Amino acid sequence: MEFTSLEEALRELVQAEGPKVLRDPARLRTLLQARVGRSQDEAIDTLVAVLKTPTGQQIVSSALDPGQDRSSWATELKNAGNFSGEDSEWAASALAKALTAPSEVQVQPGNALVVGDSPNPVAAEPAETIAIVQIAFSANGRLCALGDSAMHIALVDDSTQKWKIDVTSSTRKALSLQRIRRMAFDPSGSMLVIANSDRLAAFDVSSGAEIWSYSPPNLFSFLIQGPSDFAILSDSQLLVPFDEGSLNIWNINGWSERRKRMSVAPRMIAMLPDRESFVGSDGSQTFLWEVQGFARKHKITLERVYSLVAHAVQPVVGMRTLDQFHIFDAPNKRILTTIDVDPGLPLLAASPSAELFAVGGECGAMLVNFCGEPVGSVKTHSGSRLTALAFHPSGRTVALGGIDGEVTYVEVSPAPAGKRYRA
Description:
The chain has helices spanning about 5-15, 25-35, 40-50, 55-65, 75-80, 85-100; strands at about 115, 120-125, 130-135, 145-150, 150-155, 160-165, 180-185, 190-195, 200-205, 210-215, 230, 235-240, 245-250, 255-260, 270, 275-280, 285-290, 295-300, 305-310, 315-320, 325-330, 335-340, 350, 355-360, 365-370, 375-380, 385-390, 395-400, 405-415. The longest helix has 15 residues, at about 85-100. It is α+β, with helices and mostly antiparallel strands. The chain folds into 2 domains: about 5-100, no CATH class; about 115-415, Methylamine Dehydrogenase, Chain H (7 Propeller), CATH 2.130.10.10. Strands 1, 2, 27, 28 and 29 form a 5-stranded antiparallel β-sheet that branches. The N and C termini lie far apart (about 50 Å). Helix 1 crosses helix 2 (about 25-35) and helix 3 crosses helix 6 (about 85-100).
């Protein structure tokens, strides 16, 4: 694609690859020349000269930190190398605009979505080939737990990694099945609970030390029977389905309080806000369940379901089938809306406050309101394949984990009130 404006080309590069593209002036020169041709080499040389100054490099490093004050960058860049003339003023202005420009999000008319600064990567230092597969936030939003495909979990506190642990199974039979299926902080934020392929466990947030773990016995001595999912039921309880076909009320301190074995048990669950009912599915059959007595209240007729997510405030559940996204109204036992979705892993997230779902695609997520109207989109920082998705508890940020091991935070604000859900 040819750009007639060097400033436009610079802004597109920074938005596409992030401020890190400015760390390599030689590569930047090549990329810009490919877009605008050789006719603007003199202006490109001025840009590169400003970037090579200590001030220029310091500002590029600062741009990777989302908390930096950016208001003075244009002046600092202008004075960076004591350059004179209109070219240096233009270069300073263009660089400042590229570094502070908001991300562009396509929105439907009347459903404006405000997006903040360009997404910045926050990595838990995994290898580049290790994908982020789980993202969990504490209730206050300060702590973020990241799980990767190599069975590592890292705890990030205000962008600083506190600890990193390996939760690989010690059982050889379970190694081929290893996957972190779910992570969540307990309501107090002092404990991180995980479900992987063969055990349910809790870790101390301050140190990463294991507090307790439970590995169910194998079926017929060789079939692994781990927890398939879990949900926070109360301050002291979890709801846990296990592979052998049981539902369990599990005490947050590590023991089972109630268990029921059944012929049709869910493998994935989404707890409704009242904590008295949930939607559960084994993939082929999906039901609205009652926690008391583990009774099925209503069958939801859909084709194979691959993922579920419940809204934290409203009694609605998002459900992903192969190529569609469905929003289920639990009190009225009906599907509110169904929309077609892009291919990609069946990742879902629900805003903790706004009437908004994030529906994963190949390299990003579509933001959808309760009426099934797309109101925006967010993408991974480097355009990598999306492998994890979560909303920050503030509701203003979506976290996207990539196959490259990076987590992108994109600031969003919900669509304005208009059509709203009513039970």
